[in-house]
Amino acid sequence: MKVIIVDDEPKAIDLLKSYLTHFSSLELVATFRNGLKAFEFISKNSVDLVLLDINMPHISGISLSKMLPENLKVIFTTAYSEYAVESYEIRALDYLVKPISFERFTKSMSRVLTSNTKSINKQNAVVIVKSGFETYRLESKAILFLEKDGNYMSYHCTTQRILARETIQEALDKLPGHFIQVHKSFIVNAENIISFTSSELTIGKAKIPISETYKNEVLKRLDNNMAC
């Protein structure tokens, strides 16, 4: 995993750098004392984890985190514990209060690595779908999209269509993260999208509508995926 450190205190950067040397799967690729410089770097380079100070000049860590891609993991570091509640609301993976001990840092990195393993496993997941008396084991990549059909969800796959008695939320709860709800009646596999506009997307021969309710978030995620 590629890591950057963003902190306006050189001593804090040096400490985190020394801690990171103990984790062979974490690669420190850059350090920054300015949040705007860090944002510029992230916009042009692949980064998996940001160790981010909150109190910084020009732009705070809280503000910077709101500008970052959703898939980028963030761990806040700060001397002020009163920011903890706000940081967790933003989706921070962890919150480290200075001075940061190596023991506390190790626990945080364990959480990062566990989270990354789960993410990889889920991307390659087998989805269990119950249809009547039969149970199907579907490779997630074979699922094109799901369509709400009365009290059922219709799984449109590459070679078959399966009806399961479940809600949209029940389907979302078991699907990998690259499945996106784009309409009150549709969930799509982002990896199988051929093209899209602001109002619809194409998967195979199907045209799937994008509703106003989900449009902003859907287009943001799709633009990020196409840029990768």
Annotation keywords:
alpha/beta, Rossmann fold, 5-stranded parallel β-sheet, 7 helices, 15 strands
What does this protein look like?
With about 230 residues, the chain is α/β, with parallel strands linked by helices. The chain folds into two domains: about 120 residues, Rossmann fold (3-Layer(aba) Sandwich), CATH 3.40.50.2300; about 100 residues, LytTr DNA-binding domain (OB fold (Dihydrolipoamide Acetyltransferase, E2P), Beta Barrel). The protein is built from seven helices and 15 strands. The strands form four sheets. It has a five-stranded parallel beta sheet, with helices on both faces. It has a five-stranded antiparallel beta sheet with strand order 10-9-8-12-11. A three-stranded antiparallel beta sheet has the order 13-14-15, with no helix packed on it. The protein is elongated. The protein starts with a strand and ends with a helix. The mean pLDDT is about 85.
Let me know the number of strands. Answer: 15
- The CATH topology assignment of the largest domain is Rossmann fold
Query: On the 0-100 scale, what is the average pLDDT?
Result: 87
Q: Name the CATH superfamily classification of the largest domain.
A: Response regulator
Radius of gyration: 21 Å
By DSSP (H or I, 4+ residues per run), the number of helices equals 7
Assess the beta-strand content as a share of residues. 25-35%
Low-confidence blocks of residues? none
The first-level CATH class name of the largest domain? Alpha Beta
Count of spatially separate domains: 2
CATH architecture of the largest domain: 3-Layer(aba) Sandwich
- Helix share bin: 25-40%
The dominant shape is elongated
Structural class: alpha/beta
Distance between the termini: 16 Å
Strand order of the largest sheet: 2-1-3-4-5
SSE pattern, N- to C-terminal: EHEHEHEHEHEEEEEHEEEEEH
Instruction: Tell me the major beta sheet.
Output: 5 strands, parallel
